[in-house]
Amino acid sequence: MTTEIDAIRTAVLEGAPGDGLAALPLPEGVRGALVRADEQEMFAGMASEEKDPRTSVHVEEFPFPEIAPDEVVLAVMASSINFNTVWTSIFEPLPTFGFLKRLGKESVWGARHDQPFHVIGSDAAGVVLRVGSAVRNWKPGDNVTVHCNYLDDQDPSAHDDSMMATNQRIWGFESNFGGLADLSVVKANQLMPKPAHLTWEEAAVNALCNSTSYRMIVSPNGSHMTQGQTVLVWGATGGIGAYACQYVRNGGGTPVAVVSSEKRVALLNDMGIEAVIDRRAEGYNFWNAEGVQDPSEWKRFGKKIREVAGTDPDIVFEHPGRSTMGASVFVAKRGGMIITCAATSGFMIEYDNRYLWMNLKTLKGCHFANYREAWEANRAVCEGRVHPTLSKVFTLADVGEAAYQVHHNMHEGKLGVLCLAPEEGLGVTDGEMRERLLPEITLFRRHA
Ligand code: NAP
Asked: pTM for the full model?
């Protein structure tokens, strides 16, 4: 028996026209990766490393909601794992059900999100199936990628830099019906054109990390890097770090890339990055056994940066947080900036403030990207100036395993997830451009 979802998949793969897609019936239940409210205490008392996404993430059917006038139904061909997939699945630093409850109280449409399940995922590439009555710029049949800045544009605070909106949220993390599913609910102002030269899984991995790094490195809302600057990039082959390195190089800067294995050093060298520090081989102990920071280790690190780059960094691209922030504040150049968007290793931060104020450094917070920034970051991918960092592909059924690998720093770049796409390699509409850029597009896969 052909189900509604099989018919949708077949129609998309056969390139059915928009009116044909719009006429297809939608299923009542849709397959998605979700966590359950009644399991949010399942890891209570366990250390972070022991909390296993493979036990908390379930791939099962959930009731698919009606769309609001400013939303579309997306046939998700592929999605990706982000670190927020890990946070949701280990219920840290908070279970995400509180976010859904708050959204549920905002409006009639918001109430749909407050469910005993949370369908996760903050990236997607796919095809528009239905549009709400207020959607102007998109239609059924459009091939799109999705950025995750989810906001209420009726709020005045959303009208300048929309990341400053008081009710700004991350789609699929602070809202329900995210991208790790066969169908998803997406606001029209999250949509961007799919890069024609990429497969579904290559197109799906970029938006969250690429846009975040764009804002942190390129945008005046971030560090606004200029030509000739040196940028220390922590986790330089990770999700956001690998896009940061590309923006630094594109903008005429020099990345000083920090990683933790020889394999990752080789990958960066293959990207054309020479100034690389293997933090594991160097054995930095910024925190000693008593849990106190050791400034002599910051100095040893700073000396190494000068050795490989010939200068102190103008900008430090920070996200590991507690384990590295003391060193990051110390090594930044006089007048330089430490720009941070995360704290993977812990958010209670300690650094020596004397180095910040006496040397006139700036510590700046940064979070995802507004629509304009996400659009520009996507345009860089569409034009082949920034490349996907896809290293491995999983099926939707294996989202728990993929999140486990990200949780334990076992991956490079991005992990893609096939949703409706039955296999890898589909969705390319500009074969000539793909052929030309193939070595860059497949770099992370070759090093996986
Ligand atoms: P990722 O793919 O896991 O990469 C992180 C990299 O950081 C790893 O490859 C690792 O590289 C390095 N790292 C991990 N722990 C470290 C430590 N203790 N000290 C030094 N380096 C360490 O994750 P991601 O996608 O890049 O995300 C990184 C963080 O940013 C996460 O916390 C995520 O939630 C956050 N984030 C925030 C936003 C936002 O909008 N605010 C957006 C995206 C991501 P090596 O081991 O090779 O050094």
From this structure: 0.98
